Amino acid sequence: MTNEYDDPKFFEQYSQMPRSRQGLKAAGEWHQLKELFPDVSGSSVLDLGCGYGWHCRYAAEQGAVRVLGLDISEKMLAEAGRSGGEAIEYRLCGIEDYEYPADEWDIVVSNLALHYIENLETVYQKVFTTLKPGGVFLFNIEHPVFTSGVGQDWVYDADGAPLYWPIDGYFLPGERVTNFLGCKVKKQHHTLTQILNGLLRCGFTLTAVEEAQPPKEMLGQPGMADELRRPMMLLVRAEKKQ
Fold it and tell me: Of 77, 79, 36, 43, nearest to 60 (Cα)?
């Protein structure tokens, strides 16, 4: 997994994004993702790729007794550590490098991090192992429609207005290089079949699959109405049955 987030130029641009400055209320998918969270009160929560720690803080505010946020970016963790609570621990650690002790966590959450992972199924199996029976794996990953095309951007008309979103090489999973916030960023494209069937093969039961849409109150913001023209994010809730 590469780490562009410690690049000073990239991180400066990222820090200016509304979801960085304002937190979950500025995330267009939060109104849907929030509804997929199980009851967090009294639980232990592992956050894979925690970034600024917004979901860790949400879990603590909802009564989680133990929260661990993992990220490979020192800059991200420095921001996350500026606020939080006694229940939260942040650790510099990659998603693929964590030890995943057996039957350790009630909830594992990951927001916009798994599309950097080449072998999703390896991570799924580790998450299944570390969840307690009855535990929940909740994640938000970039949608395969979004990640499939070269460049991950609209095709624009002569006036700079977006014409359509190109999809190409959909059934050819693997690395995609895109220009994000003025920097080249490497991601991994996975098909919908890989994302969902991989969970089933690892023993999970799927309990929710949703494609993120911005709420009506955000549609007036620049570019938000275009988010209804193609899916950008895929929200998945899977459970390790008792």
Answer: 43
